[in-house]
């Protein structure tokens, strides 16, 4: 039997991303994997698919608001599906799903899996733009053969938000990660001391790190304000902000009261992120909404104490005070209290880090998750009787 031909569409795919583990490690004798991206380069770590014999096509979309480019990408994608004889298109994130739905109109003879990773941020957009985005979202669902989400919370949220409209069958599959990779290996004591020394941090100082795009919905403004309060009481406290985004300048202004204690690192590659997280004492991720925070997995795999809001993923898997310290969304005072309590309790930080690492390595290894994708792809092909090469007619 010929391998099932699957194409993943995303703006970028990074090495060690959970998408990368599906593309890279599904059995080659059963699945022919391809990828298409909107940008030519990964933004953190290149997966180098061509070197592995995995075709990588570029559907160039120069920016998030390049709406005409999405229409052109849909036409290019439809042609790619025909010429590459793809049986399953698996799209990731918002505009990729819209492009996949348009391609389904142009070339209907393939299975369309729409994976919803982005969160309720679309519903939060107000005015005419928000109305249009939600209409497009609902329309894309009508073209999908299966809707995938990473958590039960996301399934419930979609059923409430879009329950009055037709929905394809919903399936929950968590993300899987290559947890044996160096990216997820905890720093040794020597590596940790060296990394802190290179950053000018003494063993006695407590470092809080945040990793992510600088956007208000990520909760970094609450984090900075909470830290400014903490810095008044604990001279040895430090805050590292890893990332950048549209709100970076405003965030720098908010950080001025404790500017000498706050470091803006900008975007870093995967190895540098591992080093910064591993050298820190606390990872803070006070986001307003997520589908499944990959920072959560990185922090816990690296045995760091995690402060997080009860977003999707955290709400589904983490137990407060056992795997992480969970604080209400947007609650600056609760965030301050959590940082204060953890900053003075190395024992609690160690307990959370070890318990969280055990949870992650038990449930989120790609070796446990990838068989779920194998079964999904195979079952869908059998159920729809797709064999040979659709779109070839």
Could you list the spans in which at least 5 consecutive residues all have pLDDT below 50? 387-393
Mean pLDDT: 93
Distance between the termini: 21 Å
DSSP strand tally = 13
The CATH topology of the largest domain comes to Rossmann fold
Tally of distinct domains: 2
Main beta sheet, described?
7 strands, parallel
Number of helices: 15
Strand sequence of the main sheet, in spatial order? 3-2-1-4-5-6-7
C-alpha geometry: globular
Structure description:
- The structure is a single chain.
- Helix 8 (220-233) crosses helix 13 (332-343).
- It contains 15 helices and 13 strands.
- The radius of gyration is 22 Å and the shape is globular.
- It has helices spanning 18-25, 67-83, 94-106, 121-124, 127-143, 152-161, 189-198, 220-233, 248-254, 270-279, 294-301, 314-317, 332-343, 346-363, 366-384; strands at 4-10, 31-37, 56-58, 88-92, 111-115, 146-149, 170-172, 206-211, 237-242, 262-266, 282-285, 305-308, 325-326.
- The strands form 2 sheets. A 7-stranded parallel beta sheet has the order 3-2-1-4-5-6-7, sandwiched between helices. The chain has a 6-stranded parallel beta sheet with strand order 10-9-8-11-12-13, with helices on both faces.
- The longest helix is centred in the last third of the chain and has 19 residues, at 366-384.
- It folds into 2 domains: 4-176 and 366-384, Rossmann fold, CATH 3.40.50.2000; 182-363, Glycogen Phosphorylase B (Rossmann fold, 3-Layer(aba) Sandwich), CATH 3.40.50.
- By secondary structure, it is α/β, with parallel strands linked by helices.
């Amino acid at each position: 039997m010929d391998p099932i031909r699957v194409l993943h569409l995303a703006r970028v795919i990074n090495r060690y991303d959970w998408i990368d583990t599906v593309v890279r490690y599904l059995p080659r004798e059963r699945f022919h994997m391809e990828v298409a991206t909107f940008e030519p380069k990964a933004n953190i770590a290149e997966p180098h698919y061509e070197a592995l014999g995995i075709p990588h096509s570029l559907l160039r979309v120069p920016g998030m608001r390049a709406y005409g480019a999405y229409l052109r990408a849909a036409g290019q994608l439809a042609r790619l599906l025909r010429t590459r004889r793809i049986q399953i298109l698996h799209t990731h994130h918002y505009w990729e799903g819209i492009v996949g739905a348009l391609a389904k109109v142009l070339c209907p003879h393939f299975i369309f899996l729409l994976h919803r990773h982005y969160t309720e941020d679309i519903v939060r957009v107000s005015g005419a733009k928000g109305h249009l985005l939600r209409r497009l979202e609902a329309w894309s669902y009508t073209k999908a053969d299966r809707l995938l989400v990473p958590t039960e919370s996301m399934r419930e949220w979609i059923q409430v938000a879009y329950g009055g409209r037709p929905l394809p069958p919903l399936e929950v599959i968590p993300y899987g990660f290559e947890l044996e990779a160096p990216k997820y290996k905890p720093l040794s004591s020597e590596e940790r001391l060296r990394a802190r020394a290179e950053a000018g941090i003494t063993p006695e100082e407590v470092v809080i790190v945040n990793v992510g795009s600088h956007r208000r919905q990520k909760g970094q403004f609450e984090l900075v304000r909470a830290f400014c309060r903490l810095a008044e009481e604990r001279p040895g406290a430090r805050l590292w902000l890893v990332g950048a985004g549209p709100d970076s300048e405003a965030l720098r202004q908010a950080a001025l009261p404790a500017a000498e204690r706050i470091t803006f690192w900008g975007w870093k590659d995967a190895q540098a992120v591992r080093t910064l997280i591993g050298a820190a004492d606390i990872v803070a991720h006070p986001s307003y909404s997520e589908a499944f925070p990959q920072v959560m997995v990185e922090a816990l795999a690296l045995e760091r104490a995690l402060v997080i809001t009860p977003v999707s993923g955290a709400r589904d898997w983490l137990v407060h005070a056992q795997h992480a310290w969970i604080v209400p969304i947007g609650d600056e005072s609760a965030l301050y209290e959590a940082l204060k309590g953890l900053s003075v309790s190395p024992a609690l930080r160690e307990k959370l880090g070890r318990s969280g690492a055990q949870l992650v390595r038990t449930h989120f290894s790609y070796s446990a998750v990838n068989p779920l994708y194998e079964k999904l792809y195979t079952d869908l092909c059998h159920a729809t009787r797709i064999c040979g090469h659709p779109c070839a007619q």
